[in-house]
Amino acid sequence: MDLVVPDIGGADSVDVIEVCVKVGAEIKEGDSLIVLESDKASMEVPAPASGKVIELVIKEGDKVSMGTAIGRLQVAGSASVPAETKTSAETKAPAPQQASSAPTPAKNSSAPTPAVEPSASTKSNASVYAGPAVRKLARQLGVDLAEVKASGPRSRITKDDVRNLVKSVMENRGKGVATATSGSGIPAMPTIDFSQFGQIEMVKMSKIKKVTAFNMTRNWLNIPAVTQFDDVDITEMENFRKAMKEEADKAGVKLTPVPFLLKACAAALKAEPSFNVSLHADGEQIVQKKYIHIGMAVDTPNGLVVPVIRDVDKKGLFELAAEATALAKKAREGKLLPKEMQGGCFTISSLGAIGGTGFTPIVNAPEVGILGVSRADTKPVWDGKAFVPRLMLPLCLSYDHRAINGGDAGRFLTYLGSLLADVRRLLL
């Protein structure tokens, strides 16, 4: 059987970041052959059948599209085909053991046909046909694949099938009771024919935008969020940052306000650990984290992505500046690995370069807090005797009210403001 890259959502020239099998390896249907990285999402290409890998023509670092050859598979139970006698798949007669299950797929087919029965996704269903990535998504969302209606080739379940089931359940849970970790259903939005009002154009959403829309809807429905606002005097911080410009240049980094925000948020998470938690899926426990990883929202041409900087509390300003710059560059180039966007404890979303005086960021579950940062502006501040010009930074702290109460949030934001107003406090 010829192994080829199936339909990958219209993506072209996608990077191969991992080859999961070797020539001579015995594999089972559904095992990962290769892992692809497209924009911010990774995709696993599963084996269409069980058997032995007899040829690989792909390697890590290659760029592939739908139909690109991966290699050849000797299907379990079939006779080996000598390399010198290989002919195109179009001229081959089906092997006897394949005839009863499915026809031999054409070479370079976008969806190779399985030659054996697909494995079960759960004990309750022995005929579910889905790849590893789909099964992982189903586990994350708590979906039983046996209940999903398949739309892929040969009744294969796709990620969109899983999401459509979740969407349908959410739309029809009008009388459902909310639990500690789930929201009740709401009526579906009506379908409107906008062409009756004037000329329109239908533009297909990118994969990143669809995933972002799904996640934001889920977070908005499930999290009772509160947003708290404050203005912080960062005049002295800015003076210090500018004074360190020459040293930063020598170190080869650009010292923006972002490293200061990261360092201050890490200290605030330590001082107020109620923000460094996640709600357990059982609704009965809280996961208290002993590490501090902070996500940094980055606006890219393909959509919003959030790379995560690990162990922020253990790194200096120059190190954080270099890492933040490198991750932002990878994000804009669409080269972030999945592990570089996972494990965050808290997120910073800064619109300082764009403008605005405030906004209400949506909590990025399973985190329970997110800091929105707007543009700093010089304002007159009363010092007890006169109004003096001070550089004020608007902060907007959104938090999950199930895990955090108002007092905790007030202490967090007040302490964060004190650190940004006088960075010497970071040494205490």
Description of the molecule:
The chain has 428 residues and is α+β, with helices and mostly antiparallel strands. It has three domains: 116 residues, OB fold (Dihydrolipoamide Acetyltransferase, E2P); 84 residues, E3-binding domain (Dihydrolipoamide Transferase, Irregular), CATH 4.10.320.10; 204 residues, 2-Layer Sandwich (Chloramphenicol Acetyltransferase). It has nine helices and 19 strands. The strands form five sheets. Strands 9, 12, 15, 16, 17, 18 and 19 form a seven-stranded mixed beta sheet that branches. Strands 1-8-6-3 form a four-stranded antiparallel beta sheet, with no helix packed on it. Strands 5-4-2-7 form a four-stranded antiparallel beta sheet, with no helix packed on it. A hairpin with a 2-residue loop joins strand 13 and strand 14. It is globular. The relative contact order is 0.11. About 13% of the residues have low confidence.
Quaternary structure of the protein:
single chain
Distance between the termini: 65 Å
Can you count the helices? 9
Mean pLDDT: 83
Poorly predicted regions: 81-126, 174-183
- Spatial shape: globular
The CATH topology of the largest domain: Chloramphenicol Acetyltransferase
CATH superfamily assignment of the largest domain? Chloramphenicol acetyltransferase-like domain
* Structural class assignment: alpha+beta
As a percent range, the share of helical residues equals 10-25%
Largest sheet: number of strands, sense, barrel closure? 7 strands, mixed
The helix/strand series, from N terminus to C terminus, equals EEEEEEEEHHHHEHHHEEEEEEHEEEEH
Number of domains: 3
Tell me the fraction of residues in β-strands, as a range: 15-25%
Radius of gyration: 26 Å
